[in-house]
Amino acid sequence: MKSRRALFLDKDGVINIDHGYVCTPERTDFIDGIFEVCQAATRQGFLNVVITNQAGIARGFYTEQDFLAYMEWVRGEFRRRGAQIDAVYFCPHHPEYGRGEYLLRCECRKPKPGMLFRAASDLGIDLSESVLLGDTASDVAAGEAAGVGVCIGLPPAQPGETEATALDDASVLGVLRALQRTE
After folding, report:
1. Is residue 1 scored above 60 in pLDDT?
2. Which of 52, 75, 82, 107 has a CA-to-CA distance to 89 between 20 and 30 Å?
């Protein structure tokens, strides 16, 4: 079987503005440019794969079922805009603030590469030919630890903003160049 390539995306801060524990449509504001980036990735033969730490589950703010239902809504919003999310991987654990079974030092929570390895195994992805787009050092560290070919960290929020609200032109161009480089 021929290996596939993926564009790995963090959720909060890359797909949606990170308002803190976003898990409902009412609290979701999509990052400007994310649909276009995913459309371009799909056109170039990449799978769009979300990899996200979800400490809100560990802390009891919402359940795994709430998160999965929310991500189905997000996937529907992507489809409505001509883009797609092919798979979603999430870590529900937290090493300090998790409750019950979620209080765990695991291999899936970024910056560890477990979610990337699992996605690669499940979906037949060649990590070295893939691209990761994240907004934190732990996103990039996970990608590097997994051997993802190109890891792109989004620039920090602009002065006066607490979180980035758009993929700036340089970020979009960087992702598109990275996608082309792996061909």
Report:
1. no
2. 82
